[in-house]
Design goal:
single chain; mainly alpha; Triphosphoribosyl-dephospho-CoA protein; 14 helices; globular; binds ligand LTSJ6FE6; binds adenine; ATP binding; ATP-binding; EC 2.4.2.52; triphosphoribosyl-dephospho-CoA synthase
């Protein structure tokens, strides 16, 4: 049992987002040394975007405090999430930096505040429940996620949450006690190997996603440190040549860091 400090928990979510973007190098993604496969984003834009989300997260935490995980709460955080998306687009001049993160971290902070717990299993079970509830006010505009769902039956960001973030669990249980740079590199690659990232598929195809996952899992399996592994260079070249970016994995990486540093 924890006693939630609204502002502090929201700040932890923002810190996790800033940590994620500065963690380097991350093939395909924006980091401190490269803009990855992006021409409209850089690290400063992500910092501004992360800061714009503080009040939205704080509001989600406030409305969720000791509330049941029901449709009323799902719709309330959906409403706040849509405002947070608007604030993000305003801060970034229309660039989609953190849409997936608003969803993933929003669900996490809401469940933590609702259940007043820092127990990982309880939190993930709560996310599974809350994300499966229907928000009838959700906007009907066609998203990239909908396109890849129709074309390839991939469940994307919604599916990750509805599974109780199984891939975040996998990443966190990898060398569970360790907090070294190489462990976090490997956790990133555990996500790259397992998540069906709809951003990658939208920009390319299923075969490219599968090749990206295969290259990533080979690096995880090797005992050579990630940064010294020649296969890591191959993965960097692959993301560049295919112009792909695992933005969904980036959000789940931030969520993993957030959960690991909750207490
Ligand atoms: C339920 C929603 C998540 C909407 O989902 P849907 O799939 O319909 O919507 P998308 O517009 O496709 O956005 C989903 C974002 O989720 C990230 N993502 C993708 N795949 C996965 C995955 N397998 N697991 C987890 N997360 C995933 C991804 O966000 C990240 O990438 C974005 C940047 O990428 P980029 O390549 O630049 O993409 P674009 O600019 O879009 O395209 P290009 O032209 O460049 O190719 C960045 O946002 C990252 O965060 C997807 O973008 C949910 O959003 C929803 O219902 N919202 C309504 C309000 C609400 O309820 N909010 C939450 C309250 S808790
Ligand atoms: N570092 C990053 N690069 C590109 N897209 C992202 N979405 C969330 N974090 C990202």
């Amino acid at each position: 049992m924890i006693e939630t400090n609204y502002l502090q928990l929201a700040q932890q979510a923002v810190i996790a987002l800033k940590w994620e973007v500065s963690f380097s190098p991350k093939p395909g993604l924006v980091d401190a040394i490269s803009n990855g496969s992006h021409t409209d984003m850089n690290i400063d834009l992500f910092y501004r975007s992360a800061d714009s989300l503080l009040s939205g997260f704080e509001e989600m935490i406030r409305v969720s405090y000791q509330q049941p995980l029901d449709v009323k709460l799902r719709e309330e955080i959906g409403r706040i999430g849509r405002i947070a998306e608007k604030n993000m687009f305003k801060a970034t001049n229309g660039v989609n930096t953190h849409k997936g993160a608003i969803w993933s971290l929003g669900l996490l902070v809401s469940v933590i505040s609702s259940l007043q717990t820092d127990d990982l299993e309880q939190i993930l079970t709560g996310v599974k429940k809350l994300s499966r509830l229907q928000d009838k006010f959700v906007t009907k505009t066609k998203t990239h996620g909908m396109v890849t769902q129709q074309k390839y039956a991939l469940t994307g960001a919604k599916g990750e949450a509805q599974s109780g973030f199984v891939n975040v669990s996998k990443a966190l249980s990898f060398q569970a006690e360790s907090d070294t740079y190489d462990t976090w590199m490997r956790r990133l690659l555990v996500l790259y190997s397992n998540v069906n990232d709809t951003n990658i598929v939208y920009r390319s195809n299923l075969q490219t996603l599968q090749e990206f996952q295969r290259l990533s899992s080979e690096i995880v399996r090797s005992s050579t440190s990630v940064i010294d592994n020649p296969q890591f260079k191959t993965l960097q070249t692959f993301t560049k040549e295919k112009n792909i970016s695992p933005g969904g994995c980036a959000d789940l990486f931030a969520a993993s860091y957030f959960l690991k540093h909750l207490n």
